[in-house]
Amino acid sequence: IGQKVLGVLVVESKRLDAFDEKDQKLLEILASHAATALENSEYAKNLETRARELQESQEKFERLFMDSPEAYVYLDPDFHILDFNPRFTELFGYSLDEVKGKHVNDVIVPEEKMGEGEMLDKEALKGYVSYDTVRKRKDGSLVPVSISAAPITVEGKLIGCVGLYKDITER
Question: Is the overall model pTM greater than 0.85, yes or no?
Answer without folding.
Answer: no
